[in-house]
Every structure is written in C-alpha cells, then in structure tokens.
Design goal:
By secondary structure, this protein is of the alpha/beta class. The chain has two domains: 230 residues, Glycogen Phosphorylase B (Rossmann fold), CATH 3.40.50.2000; 154 residues, Rossmann fold. It has 14 helices and 15 strands. The strands form two sheets. The chain has a nine-stranded mixed sheet, with helices on both faces. Strands 12-11-10-13-14-15 form a six-stranded parallel sheet, with helices on both faces. Strand 1, helix 1 and strand 2 form a beta-alpha-beta unit.
Length: 443
C-alpha cells in the first residue's frame, strides 16, 4: 500500500496547555509524521505564534480563508519540523472544552469588541462573526467549510478528534466516500456527569454511529462508549496516549511565597467539575491537620476557579493554597519541577496526560481510579475521587516517608518512558490499514 493520506480534524495545534486534546493532537501527529503518514490537519483559527510552545510556524497565503487574529493569512500552514503534515485553518471561535454557555460568552465579548471598534472614527471591525451566534450552527458551518477545503485534497481516510469535529468528519468522509475514524478523548458524561447537554450528546452519538471505527483513549472510555452510546464493542478500539519526553534541567524557585523547606502538592488542570478540585481542597484541609510545612498549588483555570478560591477560604486554608491561573509552555514544566507530589482527583477522566508529564519530570503521582491513565500506570497511588480521607492519607504518606516517595518517583519515571506517541501512532496506522481493507471490500 502507498503511504496513507489522512484528512485530520482537530481543535488545537500547537498546544498551549488548555487541556489534553491539544497535547494529544500534537504528539500523535508528530509521531505519524515520523512514520511517513501524510496528514492534512484542519483546525479552527491557529493559535498566535507567540503562544506556540512546541513548533515554529511558517505562514503562506491562501485565496479564500484567513485567520483574523494576527491579520496574517494562516489557512495554509506548514511546521518546520513536520515533513509530511500540512495545516489548514478555518476561521472559527470554536475552542477546546467549549460549552454552549462559554461559546455564547465568547461571542458576546467579540460583539462588544466589535461595538467598541466601530465606535471609533476610523476603526473597522474585521473579525469572523459573519454567522449566527449559536454553537450548533457554528459546528455545522465549520463542517461546511471543512468540506470546501476537502474538495481540493486527496485522502484515504478521515480522522476526527472529539465532538465538535464529528459533523465535519461525517461530511468530509461522505463527499469522497472514504472511511471515517472518530477519536474520543472525552465524552459528555465525563464533562457534565449525568447532566448532559442533549445537543452535544446527540452529535457525539451520531459521530460514533456513522464512523467506521471509534478510537477510545482508554478502556474506561470504551466502556462508556458502549454502555452510554450503544456502540458495538467490535467497532471500538483502544489507543492509549503517550507523553513527549522532556529535558530535566534544574532551575531555582521564583518568588512564589513558598518557603524552601515547604513541600508542594500540585493540582494541574482545568478547574472544572470533571477534575474534582473540591476533593483536592477537602483533602488538603485534612493533610494540614497533620503536616504543616506544605503548600497546595492549583494551576489552571476554569468555571469553578472562583468557587475554589472561596472554598479554600471557607475551609480556613486560604493561606496554604496558591492559585496560579492558566499556565503554558515553560511555566508548566517549571511548576512540575517545583512539585513534590502531583494529585489528580478526577471524577471522570478518559485518560489523563498530566500524570505522565509529572512522572516524566520525576514527580510521584496520586490518581483517581476513575481515570484511563490508571490502566497503564502501576507505580502510582490510586484512590476513589470521592474518598478525601484516603487521598489525604496517601498525600501524608508520600510527604512523610522518603522511601515511598523515591520508589514512586523512580519506578514511575521508568514506567512512563514506555508510553510513547510512536506506539500510539503505529496502532492508529494499523487501525487505518484494517479499516481501509474492510472498507474497500464493501464497495
């Protein structure tokens, strides 16, 4: 077979840490490039180059589509280190982890900026708001734009990442009658519990039903796909995420208000219901009743950030909890270097790349049993997200007993070295080949 050509639909590339999806798209695509797989990667407006933490962007012009953020045509992009990957962008405010509410807020803010711009004597607004401010409409407008792009592309298979791209994936696979792979990094049940958004659920289910194969990032996620969406188990394959190997340079603590003799317990991720920030704080309260020389760092942003700050104050531990806000790039690596322990108390975590990154930076981890990454890490302490007593006990044990901390760190670091994006890409390539063979037999 000639080299496989993939038309890939994602949300974010290169990633500045807004979540695991961008990191996964980067790691997987880079590994596919090294395998010689040709990828056309389509995504909403490219992140401004000043935020690109992994790659240098090179811009070229394109006649029809432009990204308004930098006022530079960005719809035909190539990344210097990727030889077999071409990027196409579509003007759109769709972003990872959007909900209809957050999407509407983004639209309203853009409209306010438009009003401010138009109120000036010479200012003209040139933003992308030439569509209805409705998320459902935008997802399908995005699909139409993807179809237009696909008309000029040659591809063997379509690979769509998470729900916003599923309508685009369905449409693009149909126009050329090519097979569709949907990649499930999270489900609406992970993000919203039992209070699912019906629109999002319906889009997810249709994408999975119409796909020739469904890739889940863990058996945890695969079980949700089968039980909650009614998808046949024969159709759902598991491909674990990997981790990008980092250097381990030393660095000195910045002025953070943390004393040198204080231990640091880290929560890094979106501060949302899914990630369990309240369980982290309640466990912190119990830890501080036993160990005093410890600070708890919550790195990230999200819809529960203000509630988390209030909760820390209400629990009487506000002086022991540091909220860093959104971190990206080098800041993330530095916060790992600072930490003595990483805790992920997620309520429902399809995979969880952050614990791999922590171990890669020699930080021992405590992870919830309700996570996909718990399937691949043996040298990690595992807890039920709701059991704050057990979370606290395990935090205290790691902080107070150096042999335990050393064992978790050393064995965990060795273990995580085996989880590489190259293996994930090879498994995807195998799924591509099997799917194409089966598809071609049926037509």
């Amino acid at each position: 077979m000639d080299r496989i050509k993939v038309f890939m639909l994602g949300w974010e590339f290169p990633p500045f840490i807004s979540g695991g999806l961008g990191t996964a798209c980067y790691g997987l695509t880079k590994a596919m490039d090294q395998l010689g797989i040709q990828v056309t990667f389509v995504l909403p407006r490219m992140v401004s180059s000043k935020f690109a933490t992994h790659v240098k962007l090179e811009f070229a012009t394109h006649a029809k589509l432009q990204a308004s953020e930098s006022q530079m045509p960005m719809s035909d992009l190539k990344l210097g280190e990727l030889k077999n990957v071409v990027f196409r962008t579509i003007n759109s405010p769709l972003q990872p982890y959007s909900t209809p509410d957050t999407y509407q807020q983004r639209i309203e803010e853009s409209l306010r900026q438009k009003h401010i711009s138009n109120s000036g004597a010479t200012s003209q607004y040139s933003g992308p708001l030439d569509y209805n401010s409705d998320m459902y409409t935008e997802v399908h407008r995005y699909a139409e734009a993807a179809v237009e792009l696909a008309g000029n592309e040659h591809y063997d298979i379509v690979h769509a990442h998470d729900w916003m791209t599923y309508p685009a994936g369905i449409a693009v696979s149909a126009i050329r009658e090519r097979p569709l792979i949907v990649h499930v990094h999270s489900t609406e049940f992970d993000r919203s519990g039992e209070h699912v958004n019906q629109m999002i659920y319906d889009i997810e289910r249709e994408g999975m039903e119409r796909a020739n194969k469904v890739i889940a990032v863990s058996h945890f996620t695969r079980n949700i796909i089968i039980s909650r969406y009614g998808i046949s188990g024969e159709k759902v394959e598991v491909v674990y995420n990997g981790v990008e190997r980092n250097g381990n340079d030393d660095w000195t603590l910045a002025k953070t208000g943390i004393e040198k003799d204080e231990k640091i317990v880290l929560f890094l991720g979106r501060i949302t219901m899914q990630k369990g920030p309240e369980y982290f704080l309640h466990a912190a309260k119990k830890v501080l009743e036993v160990v005093d020389n410890v600070k708890f760092v919550m790195a990230g942003s999200g819809d529960l950030i203000h509630r988390a700050v209030e909760m820390a104050a209400e629990l009487g531990i506000g002086h022991k909890v540091l909220f860093t806000g959104f971190l990206r790039g080098e800041e993330v690596r530095r916060i790992y270097k600072m930490a003595d322990l990483y805790v992920m108390p997620s309520v429902s975590e399809p995979f969880g790349i952050a614990p791999l990154e922590a171990l890669d930076n020699d930080v021992p981890v405590i992870i919830s049993k309700q996570s996909g990454v718990s399937e691949v890490l043996m040298h990690a302490l595992k807890v039920d997200f709701w059991d704050v007593n057990e979370i606290a006990n395990k935090i205290v044990a790691v902080l107070k007993y150096p042999p335990l901390e050393m064992t978790l760190r050393n064995h965990g670091n060795f273990e995580v070295r085996k989880l590489r994006w190259k293996d994930s890409a090879q498994r995807c390539a195998q799924i591509y080949g099997e799917t194409l063979m089966q598809f071609d037999k049926c037509i």
